[in-house]
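ok trying this again, last paste got cut off
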Amino acid sequence: MYQWATNNGYSFDNAGSGQAVNHPVFNVDWWDTVKWSNARSQQAGLAPAYYTDAGLTQVYTNGDGDAVYVNWGTSGYRLPTEAEWEKAARGGLSGQRFPWGDTISESQANYNGDTADYGYDLGPDGYNAAFTNGVTPYTSPVGTFAPNGYGLYDLAGNVAEWCWDWYGTPYAGGSDPRGPASGSSRVLRGGSWANDASGTRCASRLTGPSYANGYGLGFRCVRGL
């Protein structure tokens, strides 16, 4: 996918990395994920979602720090809003901390156990031993843990996932909110292998500047129908 994109006019600040086959990509900033979504759309013959102009005529393929405009009606790939992300993460459940219920253990997710501070953390303590091989990041292959009620994997832990929204307080309400019109940082959801149980809750809201990249930052795409 990366090779296709760079051969077709796209450029990225961060190429992204992965521990091994079937592990999530990490080390990507927010603009990288926007461009990757567009490239994936165009490779699949779908209309891209992101543009550099309000008239939606110039596909976003290069640069960062620029304004990004969205065609919400496209069938192409894009980042989820944080409302979409949370609905997907809950997998049809309501009022539960995690995609499967109210407690978490390292048999259910890849995170950093801390049973002393969180009564709902069943541990064990520390990074998940199944993936602690001395070479960070301690990510896990997709499909290691059971999916949620919607058949989705790793909505708690592994890598925190970029969302479309600017971070705003309080969390936007209403039907299908898309967050504030501007801000200084973007929303990250789900927590990573390095986050504790609190950071991996469905309702947990993390935040980072759009240029941030690191061993715990990744993404997933959604598609309009």
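PB: full thing came through this time. Residues 80-225 form a domain with the paralog of FGE (formylglycine-generating enzyme) fold (CATH 3.90.1580.10).
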